[in-house]
Fold this protein.
Amino acid sequence: MNPQRESKLSRALAICGLVNSAAGIVLQYVLFQPLFRQMGIGWGSSTIAMLVYFTILTNLMVVAVYWSSLAVARNPVTAFLARPGVRTAVTAYILFVGIVYATMLYGELPLTLAQQVPDAMLHFIAPPLCLAWWWTTRPHRPFTLDRIWRWIIWPVAYLSASLLFGASTGKYIYPILDANALGWPAVLVIAAGMITLIILLMAGLVAIGRRRSGKD
């Protein structure tokens, strides 16, 4: 692909992805307020409540890496976010979000038609958009598999923290990790499966990057 054309395509995908994830977060915050009210959570507290979800945190990361690719001026923050390893890790995270939601969480909450819009933007549109963008910005120097052990730190830390929070308070963020309802053996098996899934996604992106680099 022509480098100039690839650059234009990358920017177009970055703009679409940034708008999709940013708008999805804002819409979910506004349209999900009735659900928060049912749980006794006000406007202010709902901001914190949203930030405990892996989907929201990951889409915020996606917005950040898109922003770094569009920023004209470089600074330490945009330089870090522009690293191929950071972009690849975030792509794996958002793909993980989409797969887990579609296979294990979709339908858990009764959503109105309006609420389904940001739900789809964050879970079903964001992952393929990010993958397409990553494809156009892939590094020409291939990664090695040892990078995965750095990339996996964040999801393992999040999963561990959510389980510790649930064990100490009795309130679990996700029903698939609710040890009160499922029991710890089942939850630990699910958690191990989730970690395995994200490792496989990362390994797949590494393999794709190596294969494409060999062709360039």
Notes: Residues 102 and 113 are 17 Å apart (CA to CA). The radius of gyration is 18 Å. The chain has one domain: 3-215.
